[in-house]
Amino acid sequence: MTKDPKVMIEAKGLSKYYGPFVAVQDVSFAIPEGQIVAFLGPNGAGKTTTMKLLTGYLAPSAGHAAIAGHDVQSDRIAASRALGYLPENGPLYPDMTPLELLEFFGEAREIEPARLKRRIEEVAELCALRLVLDKPVGKLSRGLRQRAGLAQALLHDPAVLVMDEPTAGLDPNQIREFRLNIQELGQSKTILISTHILQEVDAIADRVLFVHNGQLVFDGAPDELREDGSLERRFHRLTRMPPGAPTPAAPARGAAS
């Protein structure tokens, strides 16, 4: 009898209100260990807000979120130990070098010095930062800054990686390199990537969560999202629906089968 995979990212009825404005409403899903999931939707759909709720950056108006079984509000330290988070505008300090940045985050996470030195070497190799470790972050290209952000998210070797629009502003070559990194990382980590770029879905995702107007309107495999062979056609149809309208997509499910 096959054991069910462990749920690593979970949202239960997540909602976020700003006065009368509904940013996210009753979003629920569960992502099992080892999946690469694309969090897809148009600009302003609620992707970034949901990411912040999942990572504990924002407190929900209703509902709960958990990382590796740890509630991000009531058990935040344990959740953060299992989580690597790369926000859209990563936590980079322009006057620091990537080496200084990684040392700073490692000390903040109380990584033992010998292990920290080893992990810096490992993430510098993985993220191709060796040649710029001593160059100020503010002098790096957008692609290299993104790599530095990914390196800090991976520094403590988390089981879960959450990234918000990680390829925004990158050129095609940088995007290709970044996708290859994600595919490699997906062999050992559970990954959630928010995007509005359909090519990301085909390139990296095992599963798609589609949000529109703050609501989850699709949960399934990339092939299930296609309409007459086209992701664009289904994207267009889902994003034309008014808030609260019933969706023709498959109903959201708790976890992939």
Structural notes for this entry:
It is a single chain. The protein folds into 2 domains: about 180 residues, Rossmann fold (3-Layer(aba) Sandwich); about 70 residues, no CATH class. The strands form 2 sheets. The protein has a 6-stranded mixed beta sheet with strand order 6-7-8-3-9-10, with helices on both faces. Strands 2-1-4-5 form a 4-stranded antiparallel beta sheet. The protein starts with 6 loop residues before the first strand and ends in an 18-residue tail after the last helix. The relative contact order is 0.18. The protein has about 260 residues and is an alpha/beta fold. About 35% of the residues lie in helices and about 25% in strands. Helix 6 links the parallel strand 7 and strand 8.
Brief summary:
With 257 residues, the chain is an alpha/beta fold.
Keywords:
2 domains; 257 residues; 4-stranded antiparallel sheet; disordered C terminus; alpha/beta; 25% strand; Rossmann fold; 6-stranded mixed sheet; single chain; 10 strands
Termini Cα gap: 15 Å
Biggest sheet, spatial arrangement of strands: 6-7-8-3-9-10
Question: Helix-strand pattern, N to C?
Answer: EEEHEEHEHHHEHEHEEHH
What is the CATH class designation of the largest domain? Alpha Beta
> What is the percent of helical residues?
25-40%
* Largest pleated sheet: 6 strands, mixed
CATH topology of the largest domain: Rossmann fold
Low-confidence stretches: 246-257
What is the global morphology?
globular
Mean pLDDT over the full residue set:
87
Question: How many separate domains?
Answer: 2
* Percentage of residues in DSSP E strands: 15-25%
Number of helices: 9
